[in-house]
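Long-time lurker. I teach an intro course on protein structure, and each term I like to show students one example going from raw sequence to a predicted 3D structure in token notation. This year I'd like something fresh instead of my usual example. Would anyone be willing to generate the tokens for the chain below so I can use it in lecture? Attribution to the forum is fine with me.
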Amino acid sequence: MPNNDFISNILEIKDLIITNVESTSENICISFKLERRDHVCPNCGAITNKVHDYRKSIIKDTPILGKNVLLFYSKRRYHCDCCGKHFLENFTLLPKHCRITNRLNFLATNMLNQTLNLSSVARYLGISSSSIFRRLNDVKFPKPSILPHVLSIDETFFPNATIVIDRFHVVRYVTWALENVRKRIQKEILATQASELKEFNATLTMLANWSKYILNAFNCPNSNGFTEGTNNKIKVIKRNAYGFRNFENFRNRILMTSILKYQVMNVIHNLVINLGYPHA
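-- Reply from a regular --
Happy to contribute to a lecture. Here you go:
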């Protein structure tokens, strides 16, 4: 087939022999086998090139053009004349006892960096939620080796901490007061002197009670904005998933969406290596 090399390059599989390609509205089906070559017997170490039989296997791969990719793989079982054992040929794209390629596992885990719920990722990739749960359970985040200079904690006080009122809340109080003034003036259509702006009473009380910590906000370059944003992201993840029954899964989703992307990629890459999934 003249398109062998082209399809092999797209799939990133070497020594590929394409036997058939079919495309439907939902799936791209590619039938193939690998070129025959010498193999080392895993039992006795002898070299053999004798084929015992072929086994059919349907493998799910990463989507192409919005369609699910199904690989119909005719895998060889080799026979060793020295020990009489049969064994399957080597195929680095597919982990042992799996029907989902390494890169599809990698893509599914990487998509969890976003706030999408797990079911949505499973539907998009055409795989089961349980398959993604198994990969998510395999993700382990190591303890940090370096502690940060600044630790932002929402509504928690430590004896020696510098308490900083978020600038956003100060501006929000003033904005609320101005909005209430606008609404009252629109209703009354009366000229009101500045000393009679009763809508600012709550704001003045807030400024008097929290003036020390508000002034800290002008001296301290840090704010609670990151913590507030993280809290909101956690709520979005929890709402999209309709809750979590497993704390470790919930923790992994939070970490995967909160830490730097290159750090998440390193964790996933190490997971692929540690589980014996050579990256293809």
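Some talking points for your students: The mean pLDDT is 79. The two ends are 24 Å apart (CA to CA).
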